[in-house]
Design goal:
Blueprint lengths: L5 E3 L10 E2 H17 L4 H10 L6
Antiparallel strand pairs: 1-2
Helix pairs in contact: 1-2
Length: 57
């Protein structure tokens, strides 16, 4: 069984309603890529965000 890690939990809600760390990182990485594309660093922005919540893992 795979352990599940969460970026965001919701008080009073079951874990099924929480945002997984993987989902969060991918969503934010895509946003960062879009912003960083403006100055030619889209891939660097994406990679940097993949590491931004390492402590939650």
């Amino acid at each position: 069984m795979k352990d599940e890690y969460y970026a965001h939990s919701l008080d009073g809600k079951p874990p099924e309603d929480w945002q997984s760390l993987e989902e969060h990182l991918k969503n934010v990485a895509e946003m960062a890529r879009t912003f960083a594309d403006a100055f030619g660093a889209g891939e660097w922005g994406y990679l940097a965000v993949l590491w931004h919540d390492l402590g939650k893992y």
